[in-house]
Amino acid sequence: MRRQLSTRPLTVLPSETWLARAALALYPPAWRARYGAEVSALLDESGAGPAAIASVAWRALPAWISPPGHLHDRPARMRSSLATALLSWSMLVGLGLVFAQLTQFQGLVVPGHPVVRLAYAVFDAALALSVLVAGLGGLPLWLVMLRRTWRERRLRDAAYLLLPVIAPGVYLVALAVTVRLVGGAGGVSPWWFLAVVLAGFAAAATAAAGPGLALRRLQPRGPALRLAAVAAGVAAAVMAVAAVAIVIAVTGLCLWARGFAGYHHVTSPAVYLVLVLAAATVTSVSALRGTRAALTEPAAG
Amino acid sequence: MRDSLDRWADPPLLVLASLADEPKHGYAITQDVAATMGVRLSAGTLYAVIARLESRGLIEALESEDRRRPYRITMAGAQALAQESERMSRVASLARERLTAHLGWAGA
User: What interface predicted TM-score (ipTM) does this complex get?
Assistant: First the structure.
């Protein structure tokens, strides 16, 4: 078969428009590494108009939902899935803690409707179990990577790996100080509560992004990686149960506890539930991919 | 009319057909498909298709030229294209027969 015959020279300078870069940034890292330069060259040659850039942006969604299999070997698939699942799982845990704060910590139960109380119990058990499984399953991999950063004097990677300890710690200290400074007898004001919640999500994202970056840079393989991938699948499945409990409890409160503060407005609970379902979906899909990669080729790595 | 029928086109088939004569990079594929088949493939659609075809072993990448990478059809891709072409040919024949018999169509 002949080699390539299309010889139109590349006469346009590389596209540096922030829109085109932003559209490509929406793709999974592996996809971007493999095809990003080519798509950028095509946009340069064909003219990176808004429609062309929009088509690139739109196609990022299926690239996440159904990533081409040839872009990853098994360990890379596990690492990529772990990083994504950890981030979305931490967001889901954060949403769960917000749920706990706004419902059962406030003593919101509905007499005559035990389903809400049951949902609280299921949520508590599932959240605790999911955190336990994720922690125990990920600990060996975390230690393996930390030992390597120590051995090879990789200070930046060590810092990434310590973020799950540092970020929540800093957040809890800041939270305690904030509550002491601005809190009254009835707690903090709604605006301060919102600020505290947003800061909590930022801390959770930072804590989760650290190991994700370390996974990408250190590229670990072996049994510890497989164990973490399988544990992520179990933790995600258990957390999905917690998400279902959240949906049932919030729906129950909206239906049967309209007198309680906040639950007579359907919009906020609806937005909250959409976020919970989105985070649960991303977590489950990513963790499932990683677990499948870990189980289908046990000898990998 | 042609634009409205673009969405009926099967982009993977168009890309395979474009690569059936010689290897091409992304821009050359879009130009060839537009010129010979009358369909404009957007950058997003083209690379979604290329990724899928490459993943299934129907096309393969050649050595990169600057930022452009040519692709060529594989034997599996050629077989898939031949099977699909045969099926489409049967559909086209059937459509022509029925249009002629029932609507008096005399051809374009």
Answer: 0.83
